[in-house]
Amino acid sequence: MHKLAIPFLIAVGTVGLISPGHAQELSTQESIRVGTFDSRAVAIVYYQSEGQRQYRRGLRERYEAAEEAGDEWRIMQMDALFPALQHRMHQQGFSTGSIREIMETISGSLAEVARDAEVSAIVSKWEIPFASEAVELVDLTPQIVALIDPGERALGVVEDLEANPPVPMEQLLAQEEGGRSVAEAIRPIIDEQGVEAGVERYRELQAETVQHHRKLREARQEEYDFSEGQLNDLGYRYLTQGQIEVAIELFELNVEAYPDAFNTYDSLGEAYMEAGQTELAVQNYERSLELNTGNENAREMLKRMEAGGTDEG
Fold first, then answer.
1. What was the pLDDT predicted at 224?
2. Quick check: 34 and 123 in contact, CB under 8 A?
3. How many Cβ atoms from other residues are within 10 Å of residue 267's Cβ?
4. At what angle do helices 262-274 and 278-291 cross, to 10 degrees?
5. CA-wise closest residue to 93 among 161, 159, 144, 156
């Protein structure tokens, strides 16, 4: 599958887009109730849920298995995955990062929440740049958090959020990329040797950091991007040119490199389907669905092949 778009707004009624030009007109009409939630609260409760704890334990077990097997490729992949997951958790739990994938896990229960609260839509409170007087915003954070079955510790954190605004995204990103605190590095020197020694150490660390950054930048020029999308995009180039066997080889290589990625199997399934190899196409689409039950493209392709839309070659 080349692209998969998943809408985040969970609508259970009809809500019009509101512009300043229509504000006066809408204010005279019956009010529209829109449910809102603090995305930080939902994210914190979600990441402290038992399901997420099991997921992280599974990642750790896979990492240890890769280390035991000496599988440097898997180790490299997971060394990149862990900080990426940490960045996302920070952005969602402390700032205003999108929690679309989290909301998808409870999307089946949102209609009932909306019905009980008599709202026409549910959206993050940080994603409302404008609302006219005709829109009544209803905070549904407690009801949505309850869908994840939070523990007492998580609920305590959620309560603390009410008094604290989100950390600005640019500040959070700067903190994540900033490395160790230079202030903490020079403070003991100032206390023991005086401020001049502290200033001198600051300048030394500044020069070392610039030099280190230069070396990293030069090293990156020799590195390659081995992300999942590289072979996937290349495979589709050949597939659209009618070179199906080349595409299959590339998609198979991508499956080998990323055996836990649903999209690699989806793409391979499509190539096999184009080649008329229905049995192999079915196997790969089914594996893709196992890894991601929300992959509607795979589900649709399986229905099409079951109906006889593609013949075995």
1. 78
2. yes
3. 28
4. 160
5. 161
Q: Which residues contact 275 (CB under 8 A, 6 or more apart)?
A: 244, 245, 248, 313
Token reading at 279:
């049995």
What are the structure tokens assigned to 40, written together? 């930080």
Q: What is the pLDDT of residues 16-30, one digit of tens each?
A: 333 444 444 444 457
Q: Which residue has the tokens 């790969």?
A: 284
- Rounded Cα distance between 270 and 300, Å, is 12
Please tell me what DSSP assigns to residue 147.
T
Residues 222 and 269: their CA atoms lie apart, in Å, by 33
Task: Measure the CA angle with vertex 144, ends 17 and 141; round to 5°.
Answer: 75
**What is d(CA 46, CA 93) in angstroms, rounded to the nearest whole number?**
10
Report d(CA 202, CA 186) in Å as an integer.
Answer: 7
Rg, Å, the chain Cα set: 25
Query: Is 135 within 8 Å of 34 (Cβ atoms)?
Result: yes
Residue type, 203: R
Q: Give dist(CA 199, CA 205) in Å, integer.
A: 10
In Å, how far from its chain's centre is CA 275?
33
Task: State if pTM tops 0.85.
Answer: no
The predicted-structure confidence for 99-116, as pLDDT tens digits, reads as follows: 999 999 999 999 999 999
